[in-house]
Amino acid sequence: MGVSVTVDQIVGVVRSHGKRVTQPKRAVAQVLIDSEGHLTAEEISLRVVTHLDDVSPSTVYRILEEFEELGLCEHTHTGHGAAVYHLVGGGHAHVTCNVCGGTWQVPTEYFSNLATRLRGTLGFELNPHHVALAGLCHNCATRSL
What we know:
By secondary structure, the protein is of the alpha+beta class. The chain has 2 domains: about 5-85, Arc Repressor Mutant, subunit A; about 90-145, Ferric-uptake regulator, C-terminal dimerisarion domain (Dna Ligase, domain 1). It has 6 helices and 6 strands; from the N terminus they run ααβααββββαβα. Strands 1-3-2 form a 3-stranded antiparallel sheet. Strands 5-4-6 form a 3-stranded mixed sheet, with no helix packed on it. A hairpin with a 7-residue loop joins strand 2 (about 75) and strand 3 (about 85). Helix 3 packs across helix 4. It is globular, with a radius of gyration of 17 Å. The model has no long low-confidence stretch (mean pLDDT about 90).
């Protein structure tokens, strides 16, 4: 993921905001750290139960919401199913293929010109992290010719 963080650092942020530190929170943090890509809440929940077998999906959702409120993780809507979650950092946005459903990370600098134009013309502050831009990946575009 390009984000170098430990469970103890995540726990430290949780604790510094006066929130309780629980084993399920530690497990969700570990899953987010260990994930190679972006995971849905359901995928995170399935991985958490390999660490702690008595954690419900609703508990995982609440933990993810808390982590987002604390600025530890964020979710992105890719347009194909459930939102995906990842740790904050790494300075990336997302693009997704309308055909195969693949999602790729792209540097946020790709959106700099658009962000500048939106700010200048509309006073609009772009958040390229929340929603993935949709289109066709190279493989699907080549096949459609």
